[in-house]
Amino acid sequence: MKLEIISFGKISEFITGQEIEVSEIDNTDQLQQYLETSFPQLLGMKYKLAVNQNIIQANQQLTENDQVAIMPPFSGG
Amino acid sequence: MDQERYSRQLILKGFGIAAQEKLGNARVLVIGAGGLGCPILQYLAAAGVGKIGMVDDDIVSLSNLHRQILFDTSDVGKPKVQVAAQKLRTMNPDILIQEHRLRLNQHHIFDLLESYDLIIDGTDNFESRYLINDACALLQKPLVFAAVSGFEGQLAIFNVEDKDGVATNYRDLFPIPPKNGEVLNCAENGILGVLPGIIGTMAVAETIKLITGTGKPLINKLLHYNLLNQSQYELNISPAGNYDLPNSKADFLMINYDQTCATASVFEEIDVAQMQRLQTQEAALVIDVREKHEFPILDKEVYLQVPMSEFDAFLQNNIEAQNIVLLCQHGIRSVAAAELLQEKYGNTKKIYSLKGGISKWRNHFLKK
User: Residues in domain Rhodanese (chain B) (predicted)?
Assistant: First the structure.
């Protein structure tokens, strides 16, 4: 399955916008595990996933060409 | 109302005298008079918002001036709210400017919020942001959230119902505050002066839209802005339902906001390499909190088996080890166990939870 990954803030320093080809990943929980294994820097961070611009609040099925965004919190002012 | 002053927005199609009167009757509190707060205060005052409050306990410093454009070089060393109030009163003498020279805390935040209809968060730290979010959510006060980091900004409106009657708040995005040091602030990370100017003026635009009922405000949306490529990305926020907000003022006062970020670092989520290091170098006690029927069965010499169903009883005993690692199948129950141990031992022991659990690090646990 082909997915488009978009990341923001500090996360975009180690996950650059890209298309990834994944097998055996059907849902956002599996994708999250895949991302945290591929990019261990994510393990110590707070972030939120969104699929096609909708924030994910529970595990959700992924489909071909979904756009997944990884958003960290900002606090600066 | 001085119609000449506001004439250029009064003649706007879809705005007019009714919208201007709504602005004149509005009471807006701006928390933080820094990079975001300065342009926010200036445009609110210029637009004719009737009562503007500002909260900040800081004084002007030289390194503020590249982005905090209400302040001059001659203001260095003076209280921010005092300088800002003076300049805003000169700019628009028809409105009321209220100074609150204090650092926001949970004991006075309710009294402060009471006299305002809308709150704008332009603070620079997570403690304040969660404090403001929770108080506004409890009071159902509309909150305009603005934040910056590096070359990027975020903007959202909380506690305002959309057409389906749904309202969200910051905890629907990020239920748990980041640990201290996890996210860098402007002082550590740097900030291009114009960025809070852009995000701050966008926050005022949203505020004016909300007050006057103009356009489509960012209700239940998070807008991300990137200055480097001039791009915007919008996320739709839905209620998470997986966190606890204080539901009364008494509950609210029980939360230690100073330490919600600090104590979070007492127990830490770690990966399997960190766990191995703790086992070999720190003689860490590793506790498997899965129930006895769960597979794979781990070596009981290495992993102490304390199922969650027996954890309360186990807590009655005293643990000698200084470093304790908790693990389970997916790293969820182990977090709950870590919280229980943290409650008992506080800062006196180092407590860790294996993130992702055995299923994530299957190869490590199954190797002979």
Answer: 280-366
